[in-house]
Amino acid sequence: MTELGDDPDVEALAAARRAEALATNQRRLLVLAGDRDAGIDAAFDAVRGADVPDDEVTFVTAREGFRFHRVEPKRASSLLGTTRTLVVLDAHEDFSANALGRVAGAVDGGGLLVLLTPPLDEWPARRDSFDERLAVPPFSVADVTGRFRGRLVSTLRDHPGVALVDLDSGTVERDGAYRQGISFDAAPPRIPREKNRRFPRRAYENCLTADQSAALEALEALADPGNAIVVEADRGRGKSSAAGLAAGSLAAEGADVVVTAPGKRNAAEVFARAERLLSELGALRGGGADDFDLAAESGGRVRYVPPTEAGAAAADADALVVDEAAALPVRLLESFLAAPAVAFCTTVRGYEGAGRGFAVRFRDRLDDADREVTDARLDDPIRYAAGDPVESWTFRALLLDARPPVDQLVADATPDTVSYRTLSPDDLLADEHLLREAFGLLVLAHYRTEPDDLARLLDAPNLTLRALTHEGRVVSVALLAREGGLDADTRRHMYDGGRIRGNMLPDVFTSQLRDEAAGVPVGYRVMRIATHHAVRSSGLGSRLLSEIRDEFAGDADYLGVGFGATPELLSFWRDNGYGTVHLSTTRNDTSGEYSALMMHPLSPAGRDLRDRHAAWFLGRVGDVLGDALSDLDADVARAALAAVDTAFSPDLSEYEWRVVVGASYGPGLYTTAPGAFRRLGLAHLTTPERASLTPREERLLVRKVLQTRPWNAVADELDFHSTAGAMRALGDAYEPLVDEYGTDAAHEERERFR
């Protein structure tokens, strides 16, 4: 520890670390811990000592009145894709793991990241607005812990390249001196020979590393239909720039290139590079009036399309570029294969997503597609040299490189070899390997995992983690959120339209479905569940859910789950005892899926809640399928209805039975009484032991009877030769339903036509 006296020489310390950063083309981290005002004053000293021009400095703080560029912490995402020489992050107010992840990536090689914190020994016990967001009802901020910040502090105190100043005591706890003895100079970019090169030479001249030029060469395959290119990289390796150079090269040739990403800001670098290249080639038309729709003199185009629309748009284009593919769900990724040629660019380790998740969840489906697949990987950093200590610190502190166990260690796991255990936050903090394995599986469980999720896992009072382990290794995990148990004032607030964090099922039941009592029972919602990819489909997920059910049977009223509805997921949860109680009437903006809510009751109160919402669901779903859910996938509708754990009676009148019998066994018409056909169709689709209909016949029931699609559209979709053929098939489909559900009078009517 170095004494700084009454006036700590932060300026000299910043100058030393800045010189070291410039000499290595790496970055350094300077932590100024103590009083906030003293920290801000010291940050000005650091800027002066680092000798950084004002226009290359950004302060990320809720405070105002700086001469430097300022960004509020909640808008730290605006720094993604930008580079700054020195960034000051004020952690005294509105601090979050997400803000730290976003800010750290914006610092350029040779630059400094300056972190202003409360006194490090006190910081974990302090509470701010982020902690208030973790305190979901019925918990208060007093129930939130400071484990995440405690872990963060421990990494600051022992990670290389971190200088730490205690402003209150006037000491340098660590000077942060760090020099690698190895040269990390990346190989220079390579320009393919002209006879082997499809893209312009200028595109390759814009590459900064050999990795980037190799990726651009692989992306030349986008010019030919039937190709798929997968570009993987850690953050800061230039994959988005390579994708932009490829898109610009194609547009210069006259190609129509669709670009998609989770949001426009994620695709900003792609368009910046494409626009620059087109300008340098003299091929940009109109000066780039729209940053996300570039026109080339050749008639080519580079345009952004949201993920939910990109598959359809790309089918009529020449190529599709998907940036940050790991942050999109598999169902959408599959829709992108409609493009003639497609590139999937994904971050392996970084704030934007988890490339390993992309590889595990989607790569096998891509390999099975009728595509020639080319792989490219970028390892050499572009904005800073390899071995950068700030990068390795953010990976460690935010678990951006968390991984499940290697396949060989868990390949023999079965439901009979595993142990069920609670993974408390203290257990996770005491065992870094356990924390990395569990969090690594959670990353794979969801297409968008953020650094804030680590803080929630360690500190949120409503969350709890359960796992199956095989010889000490985590093979399956479930993250549970406690819901309900809300007081009358909170329930009334929800009923009147107020939003309550962390209570998904009670919120939907109360605010949307008008059940003010839904917030009384206590439930546990399965937020995420994941099984190691090496032992999937071996019953481990079901074993984990069974153990959870047994554990919480005496402590909660129900278990619940909400997810983007697919036939496979609906069937999985149904097989594990969960019943459908709701389908959302709007699609998720990112996944393009409708959400399903399902429940498994554990007590009489939970059963009452499940039963009334299942009954209400059946009472409205026939109308909703003909309206807001008219475009719901037929197989999703079949699976959702099959999972409703409540009997539905068609309750047809004698007259309605005569109409149904006449349209199935005789010359009658479905259009005479469609409501009767709808109720009878619902009775069939919600009966566990169903009458014998083929999947195609059930899809016909959904599309025509429940969703009231036009006959010609139904016939085309289900591959009938004509609308008349589809009409006859519908009548045939109702014959076994008449046999199964018909009254004596209906069966007598049937005999008239035999």
From TrEMBL:
Chemical reaction(s) catalysed: a cytidine in RNA + acetyl-CoA + ATP + H2O = an N(4)-acetylcytidine in RNA + ADP + phosphate + CoA + H(+); a cytidine in mRNA + acetyl-CoA + ATP + H2O = an N(4)-acetylcytidine in mRNA + ADP + phosphate + CoA + H(+); a cytidine in tRNA + acetyl-CoA + ATP + H2O = an N(4)-acetylcytidine in tRNA + ADP + phosphate + CoA + H(+); cytidine(34) in elongator tRNA(Met) + acetyl-CoA + ATP + H2O = N(4)-acetylcytidine(34) in elongator tRNA(Met) + ADP + phosphate + CoA + H(+)
Top-level taxonomic group: Archaea
Domain spans labelled TcmA/NAT10 helicase: 230-401
Binding sites annotated in the UniProt record for acetyl-CoA: I529, A530, T531, E568
Binding site for ATP: Q212, R383
Ranges for domain TmcA/NAT10 N-terminal: 19-166
InterPro entries, per the entry: Acyl_CoA_acyltransferase, GNAT_dom, P-loop_NTPase, TcmA/NAT10_helicase, TmcA/NAT10/Kre33, TmcA/NAT10_N, tRNA_acetyltr_TmcA, tRNA_Cytidine_AcTrnsfr
Physiological role: Catalyzes the formation of N(4)-acetylcytidine (ac(4)C) at the wobble position of tRNA(Met), by using acetyl-CoA as an acetyl donor and ATP (or GTP).
Name the record gives this protein: tRNA(Met) cytidine acetyltransferase TmcA
Organism: Haloferax prahovense (strain DSM 18310 / JCM 13924 / TL6)
Source taxonomy: Archaea, Methanobacteriati, Methanobacteriota, Stenosarchaea group, Halobacteria
